[in-house]
Fold this protein.
Amino acid sequence: MRILLILLGLAVGLAPRAFAQSLPDLGDGAGGILPPAIERKIGESIVREIRARDATYLDDPEVADYLAELGARLSAAVPGGRHDFEFFVVRDGTINAFALPGGFIGVHTGLLVASENESEVASVLAHEMAHVTQRHIARMLGAQQQAQLPMLIAMAAALLLARSNPDIAQAGAMAAQGVAVQSQLSYSRDYEREADRIGFQTLANGGFDTHSMSGFFEKMQRYTRIYDDGTLPGYLRTHPVTTERIADAQARAASRPYRQHLDNIEYHLVRAKLRAETGEPQDAVTHFRAALSERRFANESATRFGLAVALLRARQPKDAAAELDRLGAGGTASPMIAQLNARVLKALNRSEESLAVLKEAFARWPNRRALAYAYADGLNAAGRHSEALALAGDQLRLYPRDQTLLALRAQTYAALGRRLQQHQALAELYVLKGSLPAAIEQLRLAQAAGDGDFYELSAVDARLKELRAEHTRETREMRRR
């Protein structure tokens, strides 16, 4: 923790220059609203920091797929038209979610696990999405002077990175700065009321249970009583729950006819998976076995799925396979169950069967990136690199900014001995990670690879010229600041 805080302190000191490299001239931003393009760029910078430096960032494509699907349903229901959102997950047991500039929304695993139904999760996401669509974040950031903006961004990222159990005694200086930023990032009462109102409309338009919002507020109020010793979770600090807000949510729900929402099976499977991957494997096995024995579950298939995940973690693949067999026909109803089945078969050294399961599942659910990653990895493991490369290429045409796909394509090019294209793919990966010097170095290696034709080398030369010009421009901006 001491090392982390020291590094964060250094990061805060150096961050204005680092962030300035990727931020264009804002002009006089005092009192104004941040332009959407700049707001997006700020959000991308913070998310890059979280992905690169936050050990609790959860790189789980199955959970990401579920949140993307839930977010898309909510986004289509947002009053005033569709907006672009990206969701990511951090492994943290506190009930929390937060919106970043540009439409990036982070979700704590604790929120998913502690929720009692999908509508509760949807109510939180809808509220956060409303902060974005109503430009609350942009208004707050835009009110800062240009010279303060990079520091604000850096400190916002630092607060997110250090949010889990901060040691106040060891971080006096950080805490002093953090309090100031926290007050700037906290939403006003008017913003909160507006986000509640717009979020409720989104929830209703999306077909979710509108009573879930007041129910979740009441749950948050109970947490307020528990965490009254100064360790209040971040969501409660920036989103204070009041009796007035609960009453408003209840009144809105009462004004509409009751609509029951059937939870998506993926919601139950994601919760079970997160619970199964928490703590010691054998403890998770005991938990799910007790739940099945005492019939304490909301969804039996998801509980058996969770037990299978826990058994696989405990290196008991035969028992995990037996649990999947008990799912029967329900085992073919979800891409998550199919992918777990493939993992269990691979653990049992039945790799060909595992690959066949992934092939069938990907044909059935071609939009699930988690399946695409797993299937491509399986093809590479089987030595079928050309097929893996074709799969990665098809997916990148749909998701050109997917870092996992770019890394996978670079890995496949390396396996095929195509060095120029390997370094070319790595260069684009580093561009997405915000590291232009590393991208430029990869393109230099591509030039020296010696296995490219005239057209491939021309493409590398053109891209290298473009990135060098961009890097020079950013360096000049940094020096001016």
Remarks:
- Residues 454-480 form the longest helix (27 residues).
- The two ends are 32 Å apart (CA to CA).
- Residues 1-31, 163-185, 230-237 have pLDDT under 50 and may be disordered.
